[in-house]
Amino acid sequence: MSDITIIVPILPPTINHMYALNRDGSKRLTDEAQSFRAYVVAEARSTARLTGWRLPTGALEFEIKLTYGTKHKSDIDNRVKAALDAIAIAFDFDDTRIERIVIERAGIDPKRPLTEMIVRQR
Hints:
122 residues; alpha+beta; CATH 3.30.1330.70; 4-stranded mixed beta sheet; 26% helix
């Protein structure tokens, strides 16, 4: 099996909501970004364990499908960084291995916003 699909019932934070400034001017992850990351890491590791999936060697592709909860305008590329960072942490790989990223606005579902992430061998 060369790919894995991870689905979480929340959207990644936008890059604007990913970092906050400390008093000394340094940056830190926001609570929202930390929560998203923890959710993805737990779900990704659980899915890999249950399916027996192993991270392929070599180049990777990352696909992300976003289902929004509202019609509020949002740039789809603004959410990729948080999702990709979370997946890279979950599977312990350097995200420079990603050679292709596919982003899709998968629709709107007020009752079920979600993020679907697929990692596959390139």
